[in-house]
Structure formats: structure tokens, C-alpha cells
Amino acid sequence: MTDELAPIPAATFPLSARSPGKCIVFGEHAVVHGAPELAFAVDLTTQVFVTRGGSMRLNADPEALEHNAYFRAAVEHGWSDRSPVEVRAVSRIPRAAGLGSSAAFVAAITAAFSAAQGGVARPALAQRCFEIEQGAQGVGSPGDTSTVVAGGFVAINGGPGEPLWSIRSTDRRWDVRRVSDPGWVWVVAYSGIPRSTADAVRSVSARLAAPGGPELLEQFRRVATDGISAVERGDRRAVAELLQHNQVLLREVGVSHPRLEALIEAAAPAAEAVKLTGAGAGGSVLALPVPGKETELIRRLARAGALPFVVRPTAVGAGLVTV
Ligand code: MEV
Q1: Pair (82, 214) in one structural domain
Q2: Of all atoms in ligand 1, which is nearest to the CA of residue 278?
Q3: Are residues 201 and 148 part of one domain?
Q4: Residue 9 lies in a domain
Q5: 2 domain residue, yes or no
Q6: H or E stretch covering 70
Q7: I need a surface site. Which of 78, 107, 166, 277 has the fewest CB within 10 A?
Q8: In CATH, what number is assigned to the domain containing residue 77?
Q9: Segment 256-279, tens digit of pLDDT
Q10: Separation between Cα atoms, residue 199 and residue 100, nearest integer Å
């Protein structure tokens, strides 16, 4: 077991935990239906500070349990003690932007609760985080939560070697494997259009259940499988082609958006490939810059009205912060 896959140790309050966000390279949406996905953890983080308190509060809000489904699910499924705690959460991950803000919140708070309850092995933390995120969202795959718990590049239902762990729901199993980081610079640009992951997942599920859906799912499967091997062997040209192909499929299932298409067009002269990342229907695009044109790419995306930034993969998954 490598260091980054070490268990979350037991700890006592007050304590703090942190989780990276995530960026999906191939296979969003299709992963919900068991197809492969490739994602990496990004160095934008959410950090929580947890201490005993007089009532259950999140960022000083005594009603957070009622209106924050992720906080409620984390308390219900991850805090068996149920004694009142005060949680403060600070995040650098834009919300509803496709960068895993909810998975990062769930992983950070669940790591903190697990530490306070005696610690947890990382595979069990990943399973717990999936159940909590799904409990709050009602739909989805373990792709986001397993990526932020593992750190680094992660393949779901694909990739080389032995799984790090497997995640189970009532009717499905997803195997999670490590993929090597090819060491490339990636650019993400947030369109400024927030969206609901659950709504996007439901509409794609309906499309994949309609005539022609199984054939489309098979194409998603092939693109992600080939994409995972292309990233693993560092074949940039193949990755770029497969990213473009993945975007065609995402467009076909209805989760692109005129703003995302405008960003893709604006970025084209400085990017080897651009596709939406995450649930789509707004949110963000992921671009693989033409080497040497990173600054031009960022300028083009900003001029087209997006909020672009370089995202750096981080090998460090969710864990405690020693203060
Ligand atoms: C959202 O970040 C990724 C989706 O595939 C949903 C999921 O996997 O839970 C759209």
C-alpha cells in the first residue's frame, strides 16, 4: 500500500480534513451505467474544521441539516454518534461547475467523522462517501468520490492491474484502478452556468434507455477504454482524438450547451482537444492545450466569457490535516 492510500487514522476533536476536487477526462454519464471513466484529482481543495458544539451547525447555520442534503446525508450515514458538532467548510472549488465540489465536501467531512470514530481504511471511506453522495443526489456513480478519496489519476471499470477497491450499490459494482499521470498541463474553463448533476444524469439515463441508447453506451465504453490506454502510454495525439469523439457523444445525449459549444470553438486554435467535463448542461470544459499555447488558450477562453484556469493533478487524496 502506498502512502497516499494509507488509512484515515483515529483522531479526537477538534480536527480538520481536506479533499481535492476532481476533473473527468473520459466517460462521465456513461460511468453511471457501468461503462469506464477516467478522472484525476485536482489541486483545488475543500477543507472542513470539526469540533464539538451545542447544536449541529454548518458554517454557523443551525438549519443546515434541513436545507443541505450533503451535510444531512453525511451526518445520517457517517456520524453514528449523532452528538452535536460544529462544522466549518472552506472551499476553493467552484460550485456546480463539474469539478467535484460536492464529492470533496462529502469526502472531507466523512474523513473527519471517520477519524473521530476510530479511523477507517481508504476502501471503506470510498464506499461510505459514495453512499453519502448518492443518498444526497439520488443518482450517480462512485467516480467522483473514489477519485477524490484516491487522489491522482483513477480509472473506474477499466485500466491496468489490480483494483485499489471496488464500490458496490444494490445492483452494480465499479472497480477502481490507478492510472499513471502523463504529466500534462490541463486547462479547465467554467462557463458560469451552474447546473444540477441529478437532472443531467436523469436526462442522459432516459436517452440511453431509448432506442439506440445501448449502441451509444457501447460507443462511450469504447472511447473511454481506448482513452484510458492512450493516457497510460502517454499518447497525446490519440488522447486528443478520443476527447473530441467523447464530446460528440456527450452532445448526442443532450448534455452540451450553446455556451460550452462557443467555448469549444473559441479554444480550438490553441487546443489539441476540448470537451465538457462533469455533468455538462453548463458547468465546465476541459482542454488539452497545444504545447506552448497555454497562455493563448487561457486568453481565448477568458475573452469568450469563461473563467479559465490551469488545473494541476494532485496525487494526494482526502485526508486529515494536522494543525
Ligand atoms: C458528475 O461529476 C459525473 C457524472 O457521471 C455523474 C456521476 O458519475 O455520478 C455525470
Answers
A1: no
A2: 2
A3: no
A4: no
A5: no
A6: helix 69-78
A7: 166
A8: 3.30.230.10
A9: 999 999 999 999 999 999 999 999
A10: 16
